[in-house]
Amino acid sequence: MAPGTATSEVKAAAENPQPLSSAPFLQLRDAVVRRAGRAILSVDAFDLAQGENIALLGPNGSGKSTFVKLITREVLPLHRDEPPVLFKGRDRATLAEVKQCLGVVSSTMQDQMTVHLPAVDVVAGGLFGSLGVLPTVDAAEADAARARARDTMDLLGIADLHDRDVMTLSTGQARRALIARALVHDPETLVFDEPCTGLDPEGMYYVRRSMRTLAQAGKSIVLVTHYPEDVIPEIGRLVLIKNGAVFADGPKESLLADDSMSALFDVPLKINRSGSYYSLVSAY
Fold first, then answer.
1. Which of the four, 194, 197, 205, 213, has the lowest number of CB atoms within 10 Å?
2. How many C-beta atoms lie closer than 10 Å to residue 277's C-beta?
3. Distance between CA 20 and CA 5 in Å, rounded?
């Protein structure tokens, strides 16, 4: 890319924002995140189209989580005269607007589920940004929130968990309840941050099936993972992150390959493919 091209693109987009129907969901240009005086992530150019399904792959400490936090606005890049982040073509989208468009599922959220509440209340809490239904909510609104939570849980095939105490759920069941919680406010994009961490094969199967259900229903999926096994067939694009930068960005079929994965993780690896599914094995 010629010097100044990315800067010119961002400036033009900021001055002439595209209609929401055609602007990328997220656009990064020369976005740098610093911590303790050093750059922990630098992204020269990245576009996420509205409705697109992608996966971010990389080793621990590569910058994947920081990349996701750029998407969710939990961290901000260094200020520049030309905005490094455009959300649907705008550089001044509010945090509330971003949160309305996003649902986030993370294994770390499960650590916060330490209160005896029915699973339906935990899911309904996604409408209020709280662990459960706020006590200040009037009865009619609380009933409506629980009804919406039940419908969402039904969509994901976990109707049998409605009234279960979340403290009694298996790890896999609790993870699926968290997916419902992220979905309950009907976001257009769902971010899955290492969603299968700590799950047994049964839990992994149901979480991956939930991702497929949502993708097939028209939700955009942004998956962050170490494992090709998590990359569902509906995801067509991979972004490989290494040493705080984009290492490669392209079609799944070309990047889920022995040479790409070995270079990404710095160990000899082999990729097995069965139809639309991929798995990773060490070549030792």
1. 205
2. 13
3. 23
Find out whether 193 and 171 touch, Cβ atoms under 8 Å. no
| CATH code of the domain occupying 24-282 | 3.40.50.300
Angle between helices 171-183 and 201-216 (to 10 degrees): 20
Residue 230 DSSP label: G
pLDDT tens digit sequence for 32-72: 999 998 999 999 999 999 999 999 999 999 999 999 999 99
Per-domain boundaries in the chain: 24-282
47: helix, strand or coil? strand
CA dist 194 and 180 (Å) reads 16
pLDDT tens digit sequence for 152-184: 999 999 999 999 999 999 999 999 999 999 999
Alpha-carbon distances of 20 from 101, 103, 125, rounded to whole Å: 12, 19, 29
Do the Cβ atoms of 268 and 262 come closer than 8 Å?
yes
**Burial call 169-186: b when 16+ CB within 10 Å, e when fewer:** beebbbbbbbbbbbbbbe
